[in-house]
Prior knowledge:
By secondary structure, this protein is an alpha/beta fold. Helices cover 36% and strands 13% of the residues. The radius of gyration is 27 Å and the shape is globular.
Amino acid sequence: EPLDFGEPMSEQAFLAHMREIAAENSVMTSLIGQGYHGTVTPPVIQRNVLENPAWYTAYTPYQPEISQGRLEALLNFQTMVSDLTGLEIANASLLDESTAAAEAMTMAQRVAKSKAMAFFVDENCHPQNIAVLRTRAEPLGIEVIVGAPEALQPERVFGAIFQYPGTRGGLRDFSAEMDALHEHRAVGIVIADPLALCLLKAPGEMGADIAVGSTQRFGVPIGYGGPHAAYMSCRDAFKRAMPGRLVGVSIDSHGNRAYRLSLQTREQHIRREKATSNVCTAQALLAVMASFYAVFHGPEGLRAIAQRVHQNTLRLARGLEAAGFTTGDSEGFFDTLCVAVGDRQAALLQAALDEGINLRAIGTDHLGITLDETTGDDTIDAVLRAFGAAEGAGGGAVQADEVLFPEALVRRSSFLDHEIFHMNRSETEMMRYMRRLSDRDLALDRAMIPLGSCTMKYNPRFADYVAGLNTFANSHPATPSAFTQGNLEVLHELEKFLIEITGMDNATFQPPAGASGELTGLLIIKKYLEENNLSNKTDIIVPDSAHGTNPASAKMAGFNVVEVSTDVRGMVNIDDLKELVNENTAGLMLTNPNTGGLFEENIMEISNIIHENGGLVYYDGANLNAIVGVCRPGDMGFDIVHSNLHKTFATPHGGGGPGSGPVAVKAFLKEYLPGPIVEKNENNYEWYMPKLSIGRMHGYHGNFLVALRALVYMKLLGKEGLDTLGSYAVLNARYLSSVISKVIPLAYNEPCMHEFVATVKDLKKSHKIKAYDVGKALLDKGFHSPTIYFPLIIEEALMFEPTETQTVDTLDDLAETLKAIIDELQGEDVSLEEYPKNLPVGRPNELIPAKHLTVNWGDFELLELTE
């Protein structure tokens, strides 16, 4: 049956429709805080990064020769984080603060010398952080102990995590706790607000081993909870256990400085089930924005913003105290007050709402008030009126450098000392700097990116415009649902689209990336089996061709990984599968079309084999683009589906993130979904918490602004566009494969779907030409390289995916260019290592950044070493 999504809408009509939905959100001033803050995105960054396709349509920087701009911007990010946290090594971002805290917990378990299986969580951590930590700890058998810092028993734990400042705003020096943990060979972690660290003692100076947090308030819109760039930093001794990407400095084939990703031997695409993490997506676009925010303001500007936020909070505290209220922690605060209100909580919340302000209820007798860089005198006065303070009570004098926290917590160390953070910060200079960087990159605004396994299609600019509407971009995720009906309507409508496209019944939007969606689905399988007394089922079957996140995610969910082979035609080996399935089989992870770009013609038999043995079948949605409007995973026997919105439905890749990986399930699994999920009542939309929920997988509602863009794409296409999306993707791929097969042979003699794999293994034997060489030569000719060496089971693989948004002329151009390259590489006296010849840098040395890790501007011993 055709998809039933109505007729496509014109951009003008659809914009009017979306403005109506946005108007269902109440425009309020949010002082809720809890890790999400109002911020000012400098227009020079808004226009030149967030709205610039040179930045938002780029791919992950696996090809460093055409990624030098993004890599430098991410090196800026790493330096910023390392400096602010006082720790030697920082990565190039993680998904959000809550999931970063969970990654820090599992990293601590890997590196701690303690053999304990418990983990301590400070009760002053934000509630969403505690919730995600509990979810992620359970499948690994980690006992989570939540309590006041004074209750820490370091001998019982392998690590502990503390929030700084705490969720109620209080400040504490954790040096004593760190010392106690180290005495018992345990690891100390601090979740720190980077703006507060401009004034406060750094976690590294307290003895922390790992620091994590969110950089959202560095110029990134709240966006109803995402996407934002989380950060992680650690001591040098732990660098090889750190999850996520690291940008390092190397030397290219010409002897010049060049950036490239470092320490990739830690990562899931290489180590599979032995990886340190399943993190595949960073939040590169948002990390780049945050880094430019720091470059634009510099250390003096950041310190001035932090000082203004703190002093406004101090003014508000004095006004409230003059009105008879107690405002919080005796040891001081940075930007958050916890006001004791007794039995007046509901009345004061309403009084604040009457002033257009949302506050946070803490317990039953306190209110939380968090200020940010957007807070002005009018807002302070409005809060004081709501609390019944006398007119002008908020105007108390505050000294220029006055702070209200202990002397021992005042930051003494400098940060952002490198010259990049001291450049002339006029808009002109910033614009030129960002342009120089983008000119060293290749993105979809310049050329086709024919990557197999990562659908790189055109991103409609109109979707970005809709996502920028004020009440979407600036909604706080903890705002009561009565004031965010527009946001809930977006998620509910997108859920309807997804479940019809996939053949499922319910969905959650919490997973902020595809790998996070995988983990969500596997945790649902685990919980379902436990509830049905099937805990003996401990094995997940994964094809040997699968993306590395599949086995890594299965391991993180507490399963054993069993690998099923691929037959000579590129399909799942049915005979092998039958032998592997037994009473321990919990389920199967499968992509269909599979990783070779082929449709599994025996999919119904495969599903039946698993179901007959009491297991569940999980659909990795990486290749959903091929079948939209053609067939549905739910009709193939799949029980759980994750969709990569950033691939299938054209939302920004951003140079390696943001992503979004919503998970849809059959009705019998609805109550296991991470919650809350959206449900529609007679007159409105509400949040519903599934009764058997696996818990929370993200701080709040996932990457809402990515989901919104996906809905825009779907609605603009309408039923006619969505019904043919998959067909055009397949048509383009089959056309390109027919042309390229005349140049280099295909790996499988089967009709491909949306992507296909070619191989140069014969050329390697005859002319020593490798897939790596072909990819690098293509860069020289203005094309991004296809995916190389994947799937791993295919020797010298080149994987192409043209997508439905490329023209025949572009496909012909790619094929002709590839033929010319193959002819060129076979010429006499050709030095393959010379390629690429005409880019900003030559091939960066792969070993230097792994042996001599240089990941921030403050450590350039590498250059002296190589000179």
